[in-house]
Amino acid sequence: xxxxxxxxxxxxxxxxxxxxxxxxxxxxxxxxxxxxxxxxxxxxxxxxxxxxxxxxxxxxxxxxxxxxxxxxxxxxxxxxxxxxxxxxxxxxxxxxxxxxxxxxxxxxxxxxxxxxxxxxxxxxxxxxxxxxxxxxxxxxxxxxxxxxx
Length: 149
Known about the structure:
By secondary structure, the chain is α+β, with helices and mostly antiparallel strands. It is 17% helix and 42% strand. The longest helix is centred in the first third of the chain and has 9 residues, at 2-10.
């Protein structure tokens, strides 16, 4: 109950999940700029972790590797928040069903027209960007990135 109380109170200034793209790993929903602690607890132990001094914030940026994706956090005060999730193989996919190896057409069919260059199909929603990195019009990486002031 303590978690639920905290969670619902803090969500007020966060966009609802309909207003943003979220990554789903099993039954864990990961939204950018959410508190990292409950998410990391629910994901379980990472295969690998890495910490480095944050260039943008006071404290440490942290990186947690899980099968198929890497979750990065940024510090704000004494708490860590989700900075990005990068999908790096086809064992994981976006909630909309796009995985590494999908075609650019698949991405556009799932998400609509994107702001694009030859190598990136980009979508913005709420306080985050969803990037599909393309190699020869095929998705080679997918990144959920928080936009943090």
